[in-house]
Amino acid sequence: MTFKHTITLLLLISSLALKGQESFELVRKSVFIDGSTSIGRFSCVYQMDSITQVSVGKNPEVDVFGFQLPVKEFSCGNRMLNKDFVKTLRGDEYPNIEVVVEDFYKQGIGYAGDIRLTLIAQDHQIEALPFELNIIEGDTDYLEGTFLIDLNELEISPPKKLFGLIKVRNELKVKLRLEISG
Questions:
Q1: What InterPro entries has UniProt attached to this entry (predicted)?
Q2: When you count CB atoms within 10 A of the terminal residue's CB, does the N or C end of the chain come out lower?
Q3: CATH no. for residue 90?
Q4: pLDDT of 120-159, one tens digit each?
Q5: Residue 8 neighbours by CB distance under 10 Å
Q6: H or E, element range at 47
C-alpha cells in the first residue's frame, strides 16, 4: 500500500466517522457468481459502469441504491456455460436479477449493507452483509461483500450434463464488488 493510498484510506475513514451521514461515489458495480461442478469450478461475471452516489448511515425509509443484472449478459467463460447459466436461472422467463442495497452503514472498522436480491421472482434477504474496503495500488479502490446462495432454497434445479455425470453443486458464492471513485 502506497503512502497516497494510506492517506486516502485514513481520510475516508475519519471523514465517515466524524459525520453521521456521509456519501461517496461508485463508478462500477460488479457481481461474481462462483460455483463448482463434479469436475471443476466456474465463475460468471457481470459488470456495470455507472456513477452512483451512496449514502452511509441507517435510513430504513429510503433504498440506498439498486441495479438490474441482465441474466443473458453474464459472462461465464464460454458459450456453453453462458447458455447453462441462463437456462438454470430461467433467463427467458426472468430476464433480470435485481439487487437493492436497502441500507449501507458503518460497522466496526468496515461497512455493512442490508441487501435484497430478487432472483427468479423470489426475494432473498441478506441482513448486515459485511463489506471489506480493499485498497489496490495503482487501481481503483473497492468495497466487496460475499454471501452464499443455496439453489435448493430458491427451488432451482442445477443443470446436469452427460446423463448426470457432471452436476453443478447446490451452493453458489456471490460477490458484490463496488468500485469507489477517488
A1: TTHA0802/YceI-like_sf
A2: N
A3: 2.40.128.110
A4: 888 989 999 999 988 877 777 899 999 999 888 877 776 6
A5: 16
A6: strand 41-56
User: How is residue 32 written as a grid cell?
Assistant: 461474481
User: Could you tell me the pLDDT band of residue 14, with boundaries at 50, 70 and 90?
Assistant: very low
Residues sharing a CB contact under 8 Å with residue 15, sequence separation 6 or more, in sequence order: 22
The residue range of the domain holding 92 is 3-180
Kindly report the length of the chain. 182
Q: Which three cell numbers stand for residue 72?
A: 443473458
DSSP secondary structure, 109-161, as one string: TEEEEEEEEEETTEEEEEEEEEEEEE--TTS--EEEEEEEEETTTTT----EE
The DSSP letter of residue 73 is G
Name the phi and psi angles at 109, rounded to 5. -95, 0
Query: Residue 1 above 70 pLDDT?
Result: no
Which tens digit of pLDDT belongs to each residue from 32-86? 999 887 777 889 999 999 888 887 876 655 667 889 999 999 999 999 889 988 9
Which DSSP letter does residue 105 get? E
- Grid cell listed for 15: 471523514
